[in-house]
Design brief:
This protein has about 260 residues and is an alpha/beta fold. Helices cover about 35% and strands about 25% of the residues. The chain has one domain: Alpha/Beta hydrolase fold, catalytic domain (Rossmann fold). Helix 1 crosses helix 7.
Length: about 260
């Protein structure tokens, strides 16, 4: 249930806490809008939070268009509760579904960044009556199996299987974090690219050709797997994984705007 919700001082956006049971909670920001157009739910990336440039740009867009908008932190991310070593893809999917179910009303467009693109597809499969469109940014579908696991190498994989986890070393832009055996194995129950993705809604995918974290062919694989005939992939020359330039953000908000005026049954 919604545990707390407080009005922001200078807009219709509210900050709140969604209680998830067992003491767990999800921090969120919610903007209320009209019922004439679909709402928008933003699903962030792996180890990111709801204060990033993409979430902020979408909030500004929805404020201008009068659409409802929800952004949130998965458990063990940002201002939400939880420990990273206890997390799974399934838990973050459940967080996403809870937000859709309890913090939005009517048809929704899901915008997923990186891992959030994977979760958006999974959520749409589970809420077909609610999700009328998807926009992804550097979609990282199945990244645990196709990127994370191979990157560990034979020695790292053996350590995960033997010790139950490995600590991914820090990089220039990220701190160290644990990768657990449970995380890898649980994610295998959510893989999508081994067969058709049975969604027949509009899907718009954006991916940078210079993305060094998630290859652009990952988004191409999503397009190929989708049963929808209305799926389009836009490749951005020189674009990195973040795709947070003003030009890239404009492409994303334009896609949301176009999907918002499409027939939704």
């Amino acid at each position: 249930m919604v545990k707390a919700e407080t009005m922001a001082t200078n807009s219709a956006e509210v900050d709140g806490i969604l209680a998830r049971g067992d003491g767990a909670s999800i921090a969120y920001r919610r903007r209320f809008g009209g019922a004439a157009t679909p709402g928008v739910v933003f699903l962030g990336g792996f180890r990111s939070d709801m204060t990033g440039s993409k979430a902020t740009a979408l909030d500004k867009f929805c404020e201008g268009s009068g659409q409802s908008f929800v952004r949130f932190d998965y458990q063990a991310h940002g201002a939400s509760s939880g420990q990273f070593e206890d997390s799974t893809i399934g838990q973050w999917l459940d967080d996403s579904l809870a937000v859709i179910d309890q913090l939005s009303e009517g048809p929704q467009i899901l915008v997923g960044s990186s891992m959030g693109g994977w979760l958006a597809l999974l959520a749409a499969l589970r809420r077909p009556s609610r999700v009328v469109g998807i926009v992804t940014i550097a979609a990282a579908a199945d990244f645990t199996e196709s990127i994370m696991w191979p990157k560990l190498g034979a020695a790292g994989q053996a350590m995960v299987m033997r010790d139950g986890q490995i600590i991914a070393p820090p990089t220039a832009t990220t701190s160290a974090y644990p990768i657990t055996r449970r995380f890898i194995e649980e994610a295998r129950s959510h893989l999508l690219l081994g067969g058709p993705i049975a969604l027949d809604i509009p899907v718009r995918l954006f991916h940078g050709l210079a993305d060094r974290d998630v290859p652009w062919r990952q988004s191409l694989a999503v397009v190929e797997a989708l049963t929808s005939t209305d799926a389009r992939l836009t490749l951005i020359k020189g674009g990195d994984h973040r795709l947070s330039t003003q030009e890239a953000l404009a492409l994303v908000t334009e896609a949301v705007a176009a999907l918002s005026v499409s027939p939704h049954g």
